[in-house]
Amino acid sequence: MTTPDNFVPAVLGSGLPAASCGPPAELTGLIRREDLSAVPEGLVPQRYLYGRAFGRITAGSTAGIAELAESWRPDLMVCEQAEFAGSLVAASRGVPRVQYHLVGGGTPRVPARRTAGEACRT
Description:
Number of helices: 5
Low-confidence stretches: none
Radius of gyration: 15 Å
Oligomer: single chain
CATH architecture: 3-Layer(aba) Sandwich
Order of helices and strands: EHEHHEHEEH
Shape: globular
Strand content: 15-25%
């Protein structure tokens, strides 16, 4: 599993293998850095702020995930719905991916979504 550097110990503690894909990322801290006055009119502030924060996490993680995918050459990538770097890397390499989402931190669910390749073409 790839994860920002500060989450590697938690992943290893769960018994899964882990690889750091980028610098430490703390969602709450990233959201607090945003300026609420910059939220475009008509957008829900919380969604805008989360989108910006996950965009920054993506920017910090994409190169590390791409490097691992290049050396490992996976047959399938499993990506969390709110995390975009894995889906971008899968699409750029033609690797199928499954997307899941943790609902309220509980049971993962797999939403009906387009493939990463389809999403990147639109």
